[in-house]
Amino acid sequence: MARTVDDLRNEIRQAVGRYERVESTAFTKEALAAICDAVGYDVDSNALPPKPQMRAGILWRIGELDDDDPSRAERPFRKTQLQAIADALEREE
């Protein structure tokens, strides 16, 4: 059976040491920072950047974007992007 967006988000959360969520929610800033760390995108944990910057950085580090321009990641991750992130994290293990 195909994984849903919620399944992918929870798989990613667990891969970076965050907790699975029962309800459907986008990633928090803290979860995005953990994903950034896992894919090698450096963020200041004392002053987290805006979510679009972290999303763009994640997508850039996994090869989905050519740069980390936040204007290209203003919306929550799409299912194909979540799949790419989950795949990248799986390769890191």
Structure description:
There is one protein chain. The protein has about 90 residues and is mostly helical. It has one domain (about 5-90). About 50% of the residues lie in helices and about 0% in strands. It has 4 helices and no strands. It has helices at about 5-15, 30-40, 50-60, 80-90. Helix 1 packs parallel to helix 4 and helix 2 packs parallel to helix 3. The model has no long low-confidence stretch (mean pLDDT about 90).
Q: What characteristics describe this protein?
A:
93 residues; single chain; 0% strand; mainly alpha
Average of pLDDT: 92
Shape: globular
Q: Outline the biggest β-sheet.
A: none
Structural class: mainly alpha
Calculate Rg over CA atoms: 12 Å
Q: Which sequence of SSEs, written as H and E, runs from N to C?
A: HHHH
Question: Termini separation (Å)?
Answer: 23 Å
- Tally of structural domains: 1
- The low-confidence parts are none
Please state roughly what percent of the residues sit in beta strands, choosing from under 5%, 5-15%, 15-25%, 25-35%, 35-45% or over 45%: under 5%
**Strands, count:** 0
Q: How large is the count of helical segments?
A: 4
Q: What is the helix content?
A: 40-55%
